[in-house]
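haha ok so turns out i had the wrong file open the whole time. this is the CORRECT one, sorry everyone. sequence first:
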Amino acid sequence: MKTLRIEHKITDYTVWKGAFDRFADMRAAAGARGYLIRRPVDDAQYVIVDLDFDSGEEAQAFLEMLRTRVWSTPANSPALAGAPITRILVTEEARRLSADELPA
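then structure:
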């Protein structure tokens, strides 16, 4: 599993999220298996998006599509403020603590 991480400033979360949602079919067609959206607690005008793909090639192809068809057109990215920062990541290890492992 590879993750395309996208970080960028936004001008309005509701507008940004509406644009993000309009590209759901495009994400699915590109092989995206799921996504996670995060925002820093101290910066409501910033988003971090993780998109999961089966391969790095799928993640890279989707990134190129974003650069050429989405981010390059203001109508497709209406709340984007500045250039996104992107990386393709591989998860080396992940673990969540069970309720029994948490301190009392």
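The helical segments are 13-22, 24-29, 56-70.
again sry for the mixup
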